[in-house]
Structure formats: C-alpha cells, structure tokens
Specification:
With 219 residues, this protein is mainly β. It has a single domain (28-214), classed as Porin (Beta Barrel). It has 1 helix and 11 strands, in the order αβββββββββββ. The strands form 2 sheets. It has an 8-stranded antiparallel beta barrel with strand order 1-3-4-5-6-9-10-11. Strands 7-8 form a two-stranded antiparallel sheet. Strand 5 (104-117) and strand 6 form a beta hairpin. It is elongated, with a radius of gyration of 23 Å.
Length: 219
C-alpha cells in the first residue's frame, strides 16, 4: 500500500514538472536588435532654418528593443495577450543630403495586444500584434536653437530637438522554441506611423525589422 502511494506521488511530481514549462510560458521578456525606417521627410512641414540642403526621403536608425508580454487567454488555437515594449534607435545619417551631423533618433514606448497562433509544428509560433504609444524623435532634422550661423559653418547654433509623437504600429513575427524557457525571435516586421503632437501636423510612415531572443519566466 505504501509502495502504491509512493508511485502515485512520484507520478504526480513527474507530471507537474512536465506541464510546468507550458504553464509558465505565458509570461516572457525579450530583447531584439531593431532597425527602424522613418520616411515622409521630404514632405515634412518641419522648418529648414539655415537652408542646409534638400532632405532625404527617409532615415534608418538602428538600435534595440526590450519588452515583456503576458498571454492571459486561450481561445482554441489562439492565445491572446498584452505586450509592453521600449525601443532606442539612432543613426549618424540625418535627413539633409549635405549635412549629417544631426543624425536621426527615435525612442518609443508602446503597449498593445497580441495573438499567438498554434501550428502543427509546435516549436513554431507565429503572432500578430497591434501597439500604440509615445515616441520621441528629431526626424533627422536640425533646428536653429541659438540663431547663430556662419557661411563657413552652417551647423553652428543648431540643436538636436526631440519632439513628441503618437506612434501606432502593427507587427507580424515568428518565434521558434529552442528550450522550454527560451525562444529565438526569427523575425518581426512592423508597419505604422508617427503623428507629431503640437504645431507640425504630419504623418511619418515607419517600418521596423527586428530579431532576437525571448525568455519565459518561471512564474
């Protein structure tokens, strides 16, 4: 009788250990390398105070994204969840064809909802996501801060000014399970836009490509 109880207890422990990774997989953190492409700059209403030259149509700042998600609801082959992420990207190449000193910066914090789809190939998990939040960027454009310029050095007196934007994005990606606690984010594509808050009403289309690692938390 004692042996039977011992076998049942051992079986329960084995089952709980086997099930644990799938239960804990609903909460995860991730980090990716991210490339943004911000376009629509040629038609921007932002000022060109010193006539520094014609604008490039786009800039492509590079950096990283860190985030956390929680999948809280299962509906058949789909899991629904929430995602919170932050992105920091920059490049030395500005929006002006003659002067790149300003560079381009794009920093954002976004929250959204995600849907993960179960496939017959269990390690492969495609997902879709919709996010929105606040982004700060200079669009790669120089601004005249002190109003002091010279013909020899048109960059004197210019500042890199970051402006607030409402950012909205749609994402599509694929995660591949490497270990019970770790996934490889093969690729994530994003498309959306930036809308400045304030004087300069304009829409800047934005595209993103990311790849990195996802770590599932054991609680």
């Amino acid at each position: 009788m004692n042996l039977r109880k011992a076998v049942l207890v051992l079986a329960a422990v084995v089952v709980s250990v086997a099930v644990a990774p799938s239960v804990h997989a609903q909460l995860a953190v991730y980090g990716t390398v991210t490339v943004n492409q911000l376009s629509g700059i040629k038609s921007s209403p932002e000022p060109n105070p010193n006539n520094l030259g014609s604008k490039n149509d786009s800039v492509s700042p590079l950096g990283g994204t860190g985030g956390i998600y929680y999948d809280f609801l299962k509906l058949g082959p789909v899991k629904l969840g929430a995602d919170l992420r932050g992105t920091l990207t920059s490049t030395k190449r500005g929006a002006y064809t003659n002067y790149n000193g300003a560079g381009a910066r794009l920093y954002s914090g976004l929250g959204g909802v995600r849907a993960v789809f179960h496939t017959r190939f269990v390690p492969i998990r495609p997902y879709l996501q919709a996010s929105a939040g606040i982004a700060r960027t200079n669009y790669g454009i120089l601004y005249n801060g002190a109003g002091v310029t010279t013909s020899n050095n048109p960059l004197v007196g210019n500042n890199i000014v970051l402006r607030n934007n409402f950012q909205y994005m749609g994402y599509a990606g694929v995660d591949i399970t490497l270990l019970p606690y770790m996934d490889f984010r093969l690729v994530e594509f994003g498309y959306g836009g930036l809308n400045p808050m304030g004087t300069y009403g304009h829409n800047y289309p934005i595209k993103t490509v990311s790849s990195g690692l996802v770590f599932h938390l054991p609680f």
